[in-house]
Amino acid sequence: MKTLKDVISLKFKTSESEGVIFHGEGQQGDYITLELKKAKLVLNLNLGINQLGSIFGHTSVTTGSLLDDHHWHSIIIERHGRNINLTLDRHVQHFRTNGEFDYLDLDYEITFGGMPFSGKPSSNSRKNFKGCMESINYNGNNITDLAKRKKLEPSNVGNLSFSCVEPHTVPVFFNATSYLEVPGRPSQDLFSVSFLFRTWNPNGLLLFSNFAEDLGNVEIDINEGKVSIHINVTQVKKNRIDISS
């Protein structure tokens, strides 16, 4: 396919911070890849290289953050020549690609949810998308509907289910005054805790617990955007341990 204009749109939700959403490439050096990296959306685009092999056609744009929140996010990519509008959740970013070409030349299949192993160093280090997509539309073609009705030829539909499984985890929201208190476990030598958290606030107390028999306490907090662990033990010489990350 050799196109001057492209319109690609879809919705996705995931709890993974990395994954290829779609990819296409051609023999002339053209490629387009949309992926999640560190829970941000990254669009890599190249409309081809000239005969000198110049690589200045490569263009990379990053938008959004915390997109692994398992909420639906919508993406629209509109391209006319070298002019691109990238819309994420109604936030529009306009940019112009590098290089000197206007057409996107894709000789191979376009893949959604991952990219085929091409032998290039970039292909084996990228994770496949893990999550849900809906309303996939590529240049007027309803890909979701065509895939469900098995009308895509050629196509390789592996391990797809046309439903979206909700995660089993149940989040808890805390405001400035709320907290959750649970009973401790006396006569235990081991103290172990694990949890996931997300916040916009740079400071806050995540966990506090006294040890039994006045042996000390443990505290986990966020201090200026860093997680700190403080362990106070009353019966040893070096009675305080502080870890920050």
Automatic annotation (TrEMBL):
Pfam families: Laminin_G_2. The gene is Cntnap2_1. Residues 1-164 form the Laminin G domain. InterPro entries: ConA-like_dom_sf, Laminin_G, Neurexin-related_CASP. It comes from Malurus elegans (Red-winged fairywren). PANTHER family: CONTACTIN-ASSOCIATED PROTEIN-LIKE 2 (PTHR15036:SF33), PIKACHURIN-LIKE PROTEIN (PTHR15036). It comes from the Eukaryota. This is CNTP2 protein.
